[in-house]
Amino acid sequence: MPKILAQLLCTPRLYWMILLGFSSGLPLSLCGGLLEARYTTAGVSLVAIGFASLVGLPYTLKFLWAPLIDRYHFSFLGRRRGWMLFLQLSLIVFIGAMALFDAKQTPFIVAALAVVVAFLSASQDIVIDAYRTDILPDNERGIASALFVGAYRMAMVIAGGVGFILADHLGWQVTYFIMAALMLVGVFGTIISQEPVLLARAPSTLQQAVVEPWREFFSRGDALLILALLICYKAGDAFAAKMLTPFLLREIGASMTEIGVINKTFGLTMTMVGAFVGGVVLLRCSLWRALMWFGLLQAVSNLVFIYLAWIGYDRTLIISSIAIENFTGGLGTAAFMALLMSLCDHRYSAFQFALFSSLTSVPREFLGPITGWVAQNYGWVNFFIISTFVALPGLFLLWCLKDRIDSRSIAQYVEKTVPA
Question: In terms of residue numbers, what domain contains 136?
Answer without folding.
Answer: 8-194
